[in-house]
Amino acid sequence: MARHAEIAGGGMAGLSMGLMLVRSGWSVRLHERSTAIRESGAGIYMRRNSLKILQEFQLLEDLRPRGSRIERTFVFDAAGRVHQQRETPGELDLWVFPRQALIESIERKAREAGVDVRLESTAVAADPAGALILDDGARLEADGLITIVPHKGPIVTKVTVRQAESIYQVRGVLEGLAVRLFTVRASEAQLERLERAADTLERVYKKFEANAFLKAKSDFYGVLLEGADNEVATSMLRNIHIRVSLLRATSLSNPGRAKDSMKEIRQLLTAIRARDEEGAWKACMKHIENATKAALAVLREEQVSSD
Q1: CATH code for the domain of 225
Q2: How do strand 94-98 and strand 116-119 relate by DSSP bridges?
Q3: Are 105 and 58 in contact (CB under 8 A)?
Q4: pLDDT of residue 278
Q5: Structural domain harbouring 271
Q6: Element (DSSP H or E) covering residue 8
Q7: Predicted pLDDT of residue 156
């Protein structure tokens, strides 16, 4: 099932994020309150890393005729004398493009990729459940919610303690159901895949890296939901897991949590392997309860520090 994102803001950051999400398999709708996509300012200088990104997204060739490659840079002193000069011989060293040309190219590539760009569509609010609210009162549900902050770019809304409590409460109900269903419905092949996913997760725990961890966790739950074979629960739980992913790194910043988490998952697998529905549910609840305590402890500490 493809994930869906609603993006508020049709600037460079919003369009670029939409393009990246579509290329990752998401469906994306972008809302821009103006009648056209516009950019203020004149030229924008772009160096190696930025140019490599333009190249990766096949934008650089489109922009070359409208830009200029800077072959040499100069530094002048107060008297107008050349104080320093440097050649930039590399093709991807330094370019300058008109800002409007850049945003037009990104917009064109985003539309071609499948981003649904809605002009004269004004977003006025967002709620923690993952919906964008428009000025006409429409409430647009999304799996991912990205808000573009002027001069800062895309951000993920910070989860409050109260929101985290609500997220984990709903997670407990839905995940507990999924575990019960998997225990009684999953095939032997699905159970073996779940065990392999847990093995991968354990390797990532030992050599922790955030992106690898989130992918391994997502893969684990993907197998679990497939074996549970409940389309409604799967849809709802995927939405919850997206929000939980914002909190997982928080809970794992608690010393010792990673080791305890893996131990809890192994206990869950033991119960599932025995086809012990009640035991699997209890192991699942224990895992979620401990993850909740760890995440909330860190969030409360951050809240106190910010106050």
Answers
A1: 1.20.120.530
A2: unpaired
A3: no
A4: 97
A5: 161-306
A6: strand 4-8
A7: 57
